Amino acid sequence: GSTYYPLNLTNHSGKSCYLYGYPGVSFVTSPSGSQVGAAASRNPAVAPATVVLAPGQTAHVTVQVVDAMNYSKSDCKPVTAHWLKIYPPGQYGALYVKFTAMTCSATLPAKLGSPLSVDAVKGGAGKPGGGL
User: Fold this and answer.
1) Above pLDDT 70, what percent of the chain?
2) Long-range contacts, 76-79 (Cβ 8 Å, 24+)
């Protein structure tokens, strides 16, 4: 199984901003630490569209975390990660979110899929418990 988490992105600037596409998302050991496993794959279930955020408005993406125990221990090399590193679409500065989950420290063979995936940015705040 998998668990789906909303990841909200709020415009804290004084002017409108535009988001299009997918954020870069990966597990990391700490805000100054190294990446754990492969970066999130892009889930095409939600087609990319431009989202305009006025000051104070929020958009979201859905992050899918696959249960690391779905994979063999030898393929996955499961570990507990405690942080997510996020690059909002079109941005070069990373954001960090405290987030604890079991994940694969190894890059899985392509045929096994990705233990972490993200969909394209959507307008409005995400709601816990929703899927893609």
Assistant:
1) 97
2) 76/104, 76/105, 76/106, 76/108, 76/115, 77/104, 77/105, 77/106, 78/102, 78/103, 78/104, 78/105, 79/36, 79/103, 79/104, 79/105
**What pTM does this model have?**
0.91
CA distance 71 to 60: 28
pLDDT digits (tens, 9 = 90+) for 66-101: 999 999 999 999 999 999 999 999 999 999 999 999
Q: Report the distance separating Cα 103 and Cα 17, nearest Å.
A: 33
